[in-house]
Design goal:
The complex is a heterodimer of chains A (128) and B (231). Helices cover 57% and strands 11% of the residues of chain A. Chain A has four helices and three strands. In chain A, a hairpin with a 7-residue loop joins strand 2 and strand 3. The longest helix of chain A has 25 residues. Chain A is globular and about 55 Å long. Chain B has 231 residues and is mostly helical. Chain B has eight helices and no strands. Classes of the chains: A mainly alpha (128), B mainly alpha (231). At the A-B interface, helix 3, strand 2 and strand 3 of A face helix 2 and helix 4 of B.
Chain lengths: 128, 231
């Protein structure tokens, strides 16, 4: 569903894995970014890149924002821009904040479980 | 701006093919234009921005926006109408073959009454044509009962098919006349094609008109109706 343009230096298999992982958390990441500060869609692409997720196509983020808007997790309003046409700025709603909190707890639990499994002695990559 | 327009035109085609209704297409396009113009002002290329695949993007966007979609079912509609017309013509032929001798036997029109030849021709050809149209419309109405707006489609077919028949008849007759009423296979093929194409066009038009949006007093909320929650 998502079409990602990953960094060129990464091998294909690694890119696919990265895409799969991102697919499950992209909505949560966007909510987290919007929780810090409202932003327009194009700005979110930059922020995701700055957060070291690689280059994610605007064509991926825009439909996702549209879905989250339909679900009431984010809301948008037009704001005048000093350099160009008005921009649609997205912000988190109360419902979005509640979802973000719940998803964050779920993610932490999940990441702890995966981490515990990977840190088990027979999976330690440093062992020869 | 030209690039944005061409992207939006491509998206519009994709939404049409996806069955997105006009009002929702306009909303999606308006929103998308705003974002693309803002991105272009920052130096972004609209096509690259959307990942190169505008059609795929447009479909994803429509799905995620939860817009209303209406499938047109042109193939099923035309196929069913054709089957109904064939059934109707068989039925019409049977009825005519059965009733004609009965009427001839039952009614003896005095020789003093002159029947205009136009009326005789209209009745002779009009009744079977009406049976064929009735067969097509009834079959569509019954067999495609699960298709949205099929009642309205059938009603419009009942209106437009006779008009199409009236239009197709002189055109076909004119063509036949121009070939000196040749019975060559090629000429007959063109004559049949003219009639079928006109009837198919009327059927498609009926479907398109049936799917045109009507003013609604209530309906599903717009996908873009949320407001910014001031923090």
């Amino acid at each position: 569903m998502f079409r990602m343009i990953a960094a060129e230096h990464q091998p294909n298999e690694e890119n696919d894995r990265h895409t799969q992982l991102l697919r499950g958390v992209l909505d949560m990441c966007l909510l987290a970014l919007l929780a810090r500060q409202p932003a327009h869609g194009y700005e979110l692409v930059r922020r995701m890149e700055t957060a070291e997720f690689g280059v994610i196509s605007y064509g991926t983020i825009y439909p996702l924002l549209t879905r989250m808007r339909r679900l009431g997790l984010v809301a948008d309003e037009q704001q005048a821009s000093p350099s160009g046409p008005p921009r649609k700025v997205y912000a988190l709603t109360d419902l979005g904040r509640a979802h973000l909190d719940a998803w964050q707890k779920q993610w932490n639990q999940f990441a702890d479980s995966v981490g515990a499994l990977l840190d088990a002695p027979d999976h330690d990559p440093s062992r020869s | 701006m030209n690039t944005i327009n061409s992207v939006l035109a491509e998206a519009e085609r994709a939404w049409r093919a996806h069955g997105v209704v006009r009002a929702d297409r306009a909303t999606l396009a308006g929103d998308l234009r705003l974002d693309l113009e803002a991105a272009a002002a920052d130096g972004g290329d609209p096509v690259q921005l959307l990942g190169g695949d505008v059609t795929g993007f447009a479909r994803r966007l429509a799905d995620e926006a939860g817009v209303r979609r209406v499938r047109r079912y042109y193939g099923r509609l035309l196929g069913t109408a054709l089957i109904g017309a064939v059934l109707g013509s068989l039925l019409g032929y049977g009825v005519l073959a059965g009733l004609y001798p009965v009427f001839v036997h039952a009614f003896d029109i005095p020789r003093s009454i002159t029947i205009p030849v136009q009326l005789a021709v209209a009745v002779f050809y009009g009744v079977p044509a009406a049976v064929v149209v009735a067969g097509a419309v009834t079959t569509v109405r019954l067999w495609l009962h699960d298709v949205p707006e099929i009642r309205r489609t059938a009603r419009l077919m009942a209106l437009l098919l006779p008009v199409a028949g009236i239009v197709a008849t002189p055109v076909t007759m004119g063509f036949a006349s121009s070939t000196d009423y040749s019975t060559a296979p090629g000429v007959l093929f063109v004559e049949v094609a003219i009639v079928l194409a006109t009837l198919a066009g009327a059927t498609i038009l009926a479907r398109r008109l049936a799917l045109r949006e009507r003013p609604q007093t209530s309906g599903p909320p717009s996908p873009h109706s949320t407001q910014v929650n001031s923090a």
